[in-house]
Design a protein that fits this description.
Helix content: 40-55%
Number of domains: 3
Bound molecules: pyridoxal-5'-phosphate
Number of helices: 14
Distance between the termini: 42 Å
Structural class: alpha/beta
Shape: globular
CATH superfamily of the largest domain: Type I PLP-dependent aspartate aminotransferase-like (Major domain)
CATH topology of the largest domain: Aspartate Aminotransferase, domain 2
Number of strands: 19
Largest sheet: 8 strands, mixed
CATH architecture of the largest domain: 3-Layer(aba) Sandwich
Radius of gyration: 22 Å
Length: 444
């Protein structure tokens, strides 16, 4: 039997009651096992879902970040799998050999050609590092720029120029307190709609006052569906250069692939910027492939860290997409299949919310400009976001409670306690059911 006492750093094992072992876990282990928003999310996806099934609850999984199973893309994946399984030599090399810790050189060369065209900068293979999914890329990047700098006797933080921001960053610091985040400007755009904007005056003031190692944001933003406009991105880059810190842009949903964006999305790469891409939201999260686009020294440092953590990244993701780079098929799939699919889903979910929440409930939704999520704000409601989350979960509807998306925020902000994130990529019936139950619970 295994007993985990969450208040202590000891894990006690008892086997058949005959003897007890006490292990002492490190600060690193305790920091990463103390419970996290991302852990709760993954738990809901697995155990929570299982429990709801056992209770015979009908389920609406509007919580996770799993990409949709788009039939046209699944057919493409199946055909590709079939084709590759007949390529004996390539397959043997891919499955039987480690790549370099930075990823196969040939793949990085082809990817560099593709990205040079799309990101308007002459990138080389040495600017790229392939990782085990972009989540692990962020673990390496965030801890590379945040934490103690012993020789200077200081502690650097990652500046999130605007929150809410991706739940998956929250607990990634090896040390505590690696984030400093800024309140956004909230601009009402129309009835029941708003958008978050970066407060540049606060941003500059913060950079002057605090010890910041990097600026980081997701674009499109998980959870809000925001897409920071290009002119604001340019401004961010010039400010980050002025303060000599890199600008990390999380492109998991962005340009050039999977390009789940409903507005002008193109973003060039320039020195001073680190872009992080992923194959996951193309529909391939199982391949665990992330891509870092950065200055050579950063890509090399990531590769050195990768060799310690993973030896090398997995090869299957690279093999799977490499032929789609030269002929631009990966952009075609993104623009012609994936983007329209999610746009239609987003419009559908918005209509359903307006229909069912209607005039009875005070609500506002962040403009849906990309990614897979809607971010709903319930000002003045007597339930907090956590209470809404619990009430919905009890009825088999899974959403994510908003408070997890504000790492490093010191100020009070009503949105922290009164927002939920809802994934709209599931089938229409699940979405309608989830939204109807949400309306019922809020009206109770
Ligand atoms: C904004 C954002 N960044 C990074 C990730 C990590 O994705 P992956 O590790 O599958 O590449 C996700 C996953 O949902 C995400 O939403």
């Amino acid at each position: 039997m295994k007993i985990l006492d969450s208040n202590s750093s000891y894990l006690t094992f008892q086997w058949l009651g005959t003897f007890t072992l006490m292990y002492t876990f490190s600060d690193f282990n305790n920091k990463l096992t103390q419970g996290s928003g991302i852990g709760e999310l993954m738990h809901d996806l697995g155990a929570g879902l299982e429990q709801a099934r056992r209770m015979n609850l009908e389920i609406s999984m509007l919580g996770g970040g799993n990409p949709a199973h788009i039939p046209a893309m699944e057919k493409i994946f199946q055909d590709r799998w079939k084709f590759l399984s007949a390529q004996k030599e390539t397959l043997n090399r891919t499955l039987g050999d480690y790549s370099s810790p930075q990823g196969f050189l040939e793949f990085r060369e082809r990817l560099a050609n593709y990205l040079s065209k799309h990101l308007s900068y002459p990138l080389k293979a040495s600017n790229l590092a392939i990782t085990q999914g972009s989540q692990s890329a962020f673990f390496m990047l965030l801890n590379s720029f945040a934490g103690s700098i012993a020789k200077e006797g200081k502690f650097q933080k990652i500046l999130l120029p605007l929150v809410p921001e991706y739940i998956g960053y929250t607990d990634q610091g090896i040390q505590e307190g690696i984030f400093k985040s800024l309140l956004p400007i909230v601009r009402t755009t129309s009835k029941n709609r708003f958008v978050y904007e970066i407060d540049f005056a606060k941003l500059e003031a913060c950079l002057k006052k605090e010890s910041i190692g990097a600026i980081c944001l997701s674009r499109p933003t998980n959870p809000s569906g925001n897409l920071i406009p290009s002119e604001h991105m340019n401004r961010l880059l010039s400010i980050s250069r002025k303060f000599n810190v890199p600008l990390i842009v999380d492109n998991a949903y962005g340009y050039p692939f999977p390009n789940i964006t409903f507005d002008h999305s193109k973003l060039d790469w320039e020195p001073g910027m680190i872009q992080v891409l992923s194959l996951s939201k193309l529909g391939l999260p199982g391949l665990r492939t992330g891509i870092i686009v950065a200055e050579e020294e950063i890509a090399t440092r990531i590769s050195e860290m990768s060799s310690i953590l993973n030896l090398a990244p997995g090869n299957v993701g690279s093999l799977f997409v490499e032929d789609w780079l030269e002929n631009d098929l990966i952009s075609e799939f993104s623009n012609d299949i994936i983007k329209p699919f999610y746009f239609q889903k987003s419009q559908f979910a918005l209509q359903q919310i307006d229909k069912h929440l209607g005039s009875k409930i005070d609500y506002s939704i962040h403009e849906s400009l990309g990614a897979l999520f809607l971010w709903l704000y319930f000002p003045n409601h007597r339930y907090t976001s956590r209470q809404i989350y619990e009430k919905l979960k009890a009825r088999g509807v899974f959403v994510i409670s908003g408070e997890n998306f504000f790492p490093g925020l010191e100020e009070d902000f009503s949105h922290r306690k009164q927002c939920i994130r809802l994934t709209y990529s599931r089938n229409n019936e699940e979405v309608i059911r989830g939204i109807k139950i949400l309306a019922e619970e809020l009206n109770l």
